[in-house]
Amino acid sequence: MKIVLTPNPYRDKQFRTALQAQEILRQSGTETVLCLPFDVDRDFEIPSNISFQDLDKEMRDADMLICFGGDGTILHASKIATAHNIPVLGVNIGTLGFIAELEASELDLLRKIPAGDYEIEPRSMIDVTVRNAQQELFHETALNDAVITKGAIARVVQITICCDGVEATSFSGDGVILCTPTGSTAYSMSAGGPIIEPSARNLLITPICAHAMLAKSIVVGPKRVITAKLGKVSRNNAFLSVDGGRSFRLSSGDVVTAKNSEQVTQLVRLKNTSFFEIVNRKFISRQR
User: Which are the contacts of 65, defined by CB distance < 8 A and separation ≥ 6?
Assistant: First the structure.
């Protein structure tokens, strides 16, 4: 069994957590290789005693990817893993880390992997496209969400949401979040949206600070096609971000489409815990 370890160099100081995990897995007879999940700044010093390999090359014959960082790091790494149809296990070195299966203090549980004592949990993704009257301008796949937001200028954006071509809601506000059940515990929850169990595979529409009494979150079925169209009031001051990535500038009349993707991200589960126990541990218990 070959496992690729990808630590976030800005969170895993001196790569201590990744190296500890590597030693635990090696003791269990597992082949491991270290790779950086993204390019680091030129002035970032990588310890001379650590050798990192090319991530894309190593993923070609890997059996699992273990990512060390926050949810953003896991989202980034999961795109590569999904492209190679390889399951991902997240180790949280961030703050909340809802996507992560383990905390940095639980590395001993990695001994379960060589023994086959784990489960693979499929997570639905969404295909996100942007079109104007002439052509497709943008396409990406998201595990968490696609977020349309206004720019820095203090103007609202006008958005019309349709499901399968039928208008569902229209409002002015700071934007809208189109997300998966996995993403329902991220930005959407902060904006007042509900938490959806991942196995439901529904899609969620959550307005952001809408200037309308009836603009509330809408949960739709997994086969729905959602479109969000910008009105003239947007004045080229709206942006689309997919899974927290680089913003794409939207223009008036652009149409953003979101639907369930044929791609599925596979997350590794080591502990025998239900989704509701995870919600309690990550959210409820911290507020007491």
Answer: 3, 4, 6, 59, 77, 80, 81, 86, 87, 88, 89
Q: What are the pLDDT digits (tens) for 67-78?
A: 999 888 889 888
Q: Which are the contacts of 280, defined by CB distance < 8 A and separation ≥ 6?
A: none
Q: Residue 259 belongs to what H/E stretch?
A: strand 255-269
CA–CA gap between residue 111 and residue 118 (Å, rounded):
10
Residues 133, 137, 140: CA angle, nearest 5 degrees? 135
5, 18 Cβ separation under 8 angstroms: yes
Per the annotation, the verdict on 43 as an active-site residue is: no
State the maximum Cα–Cα separation within the chain, in Å, rounded to a whole number.
61
**Separation between Cα atoms, residue 91 and residue 109, nearest integer Å:** 11
Distances (CA, A) of 57 to 48, 80, 88: 22, 11, 17
Q: How many whole angstroms separate alpha carbon 18 and alpha carbon 34?
A: 8
**What is residue 154's predicted lDDT score, i.e. its pLDDT?**
61
Q: Which token pair is 162? A: 């349709």
The active-site residue, picked from 12, 54, 61, 71, is 71
